[in-house]
């Protein structure tokens, strides 16, 4: 038995909106068995633009039953049926959410007439309810009302059944079938063609713009996991509604996928990516000349219009490095802002400081050692490659870090003896770097020292 459903709501997502009208038509695949229609009194007021669209005003629903009052009757109509709707995940997510709040657990096989229409009549320019009804000469009475749209969906469903829709319906509702969970505008064939390899995937909207970038250890499994639950929140509903196509780039390792994802998020700034768009290194090592002509090193929060000598995620990392420079090159703790308390410089007691803080050491001599410290820092920062499996047996993947910074990645022929960074660079693609990528590579190299080649 099919339950063909349409609802009207106060907004586009279930977790913060209410149902204002519902219509349910029970259909046995041959004819209509039963019909139910009712206005529903929402908790929230109906926004003006929704009132204009649907014609349902706050006064109209003031005396209608609440969803909780209708829930037992609605559940009885729906719970053991195949739930049919045009863009089924929208209607189903609303009803499932509101049934949950009323103490019911709705669990139905779903059937989307958008997807079913694409199977029975492939290649049409549009699969919206209005355009399909025009295509098949189905008149919609009372458009944008639950009863009118449900009756139109019933006639569309019957038209599809008359054109051999039954095999497709059985395929949709069989146990384990996942196509019904896909966004209504995403072709199943694009998901089917995804490889079982690491990589980066891109969700595109109707105009082809990338709206989300993700990385995967297994592209097929990861992309499919996005659609295992429909969700009731606004962002989730907007996200699914805007996915029209998928593209991808295969990577030979998960680490390369992580790096490429970060690069692509920074490059494309997709609408539905959040975490890495907020990610910025917290602290930087800066140098400036004070009024007395002394070069001063300072750890400070990352500044938008100043380029740091080096960046750190944690303040303690920066302090450790500056202390190391102070000890190695006899720099002044006060001039490096490591001693902020008043009083004599503690470095003069252990001969670390040679008197620059009270101008006993000339600026030129002190600045020379600061320069030597920065040269040492540049040399001290590690250069190494991470070599791992390639796409093919006759190649290897390679990620290059140069003087503590991510240079790029690519593929080298298996068995090639790399003796210098410059030689290695001829095989690699250069990418922008950031602290997130740098941290990924450092952590991976530390966990897998056998894959690290130092220069």
Automatic annotation (TrEMBL):
Gene3D superfamilies xrefs: GIY-YIG endonuclease, Ribonuclease H-like superfamily/Ribonuclease H
Tree of life domain: Bacteria
GO MF annotation terms: 3'-5' exonuclease activity; DNA binding; DNA-directed DNA polymerase activity
GO cellular component term of the entry, any: cytosol
BP terms from Gene Ontology: DNA replication proofreading; nucleotide-excision repair
Record SMART domains: EXOIII, GIYc
Domain GIY-YIG: 196-274
Function summary: DNA polymerase III is a complex, multichain enzyme responsible for most of the replicative synthesis in bacteria. The epsilon subunit contain the editing function and is a proofreading 3'-5' exonuclease.
Subunit structure comment from the entry: DNA polymerase III contains a core (composed of alpha, epsilon and theta chains) that associates with a tau subunit. This core dimerizes to form the POLIII' complex. PolIII' associates with the gamma complex (composed of gamma, delta, delta', psi and chi chains) and with the beta chain to form the complete DNA polymerase III complex.
Protein name per UniProt: DNA polymerase III subunit epsilon
């Amino acid at each position: 038995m099919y339950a063909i459903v349409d609802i009207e709501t106060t907004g586009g997502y279930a977790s913060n909106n209410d149902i204002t009208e519902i219509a349910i038509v029970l259909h046995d695949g041959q004819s209509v068995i039963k019909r139910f229609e009712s206005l529903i009194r929402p908790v929230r007021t109906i926004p003006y633009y929704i009132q204009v669209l649907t014609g349902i005003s706050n006064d109209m629903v003031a005396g209608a039953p609440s969803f909780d009052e209708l829930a037992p009757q609605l559940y009885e109509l729906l719970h053991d049926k195949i739930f049919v709707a045009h863009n089924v995940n929208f209607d189903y997510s609303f009803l499932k959410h509101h049934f949950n709040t009323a103490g019911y657990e709705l669990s139905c096989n779903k059937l989307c007439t958008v997807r079913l229409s694409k199977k029975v009549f492939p290649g049409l320019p549009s699969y919206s309810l209005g355009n399909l009804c025009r295509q098949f000469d189905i008149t919609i009475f009372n458009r944008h009302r639950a009863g009118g749209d449900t009756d139109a969906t019933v006639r569309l469903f019957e038209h599809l059944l008359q054109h051999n829709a039954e095999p497709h319906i059985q395929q949709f509702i069989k146990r384990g079938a996942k196509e019904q969970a896909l966004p209504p505008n995403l072709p199943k064939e694009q998901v089917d063609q995804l490889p079982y390899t690491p990589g980066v995937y891109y969700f595109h909207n109707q105009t082809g713009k990338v709206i989300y970038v993700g990385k995967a250890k297994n592209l097929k499994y990861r992309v499919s996991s996005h659609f295992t639950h429909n969700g009731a929140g606004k962002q989730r509903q907007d996200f699914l509604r805007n996915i029209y196509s998928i593209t991808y780039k295969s990577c030979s390792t998960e680490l390369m996928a992580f790096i490429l994802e970060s690069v692509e998020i920074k490059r494309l700034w997709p609408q539905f990516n959040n975490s890495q768009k907020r990610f910025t290194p917290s602290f930087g090592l800066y140098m400036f000349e004070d009024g007395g002509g002394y070069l001063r090193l300072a750890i400070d929060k990352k500044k938008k219009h100043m380029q740091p000598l080096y960046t750190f995620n944690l303040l303690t990392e920066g302090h450790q490095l500056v202390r190391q420079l102070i000890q190695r090159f006899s720099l002044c703790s006060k001039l490096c802002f490591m001693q902020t308390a008043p009083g004599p410089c503690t470095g003069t007691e252990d001969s670390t400081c040679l008197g620059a803080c009270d101008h006993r050491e000339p600026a030129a001599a002190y600045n020379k050692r600061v320069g030597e410290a920065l040269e040492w820092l540049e040399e001290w920062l590690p250069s190494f490659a991470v070599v791992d499996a390639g796409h093919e047996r006759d190649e290897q993947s390679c990620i290059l870090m140069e003087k503590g910074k991510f240079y790029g990645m690519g593929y080298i022929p298996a068995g090639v003896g790399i003796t210098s960074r410059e030689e290695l660079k001829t095989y690699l693609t250069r990418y922008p770097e950031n602290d997130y990528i740098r941290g990924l590579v450092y952590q991976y190299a530390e966990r897998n020292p056998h894959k690290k080649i130092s220069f």
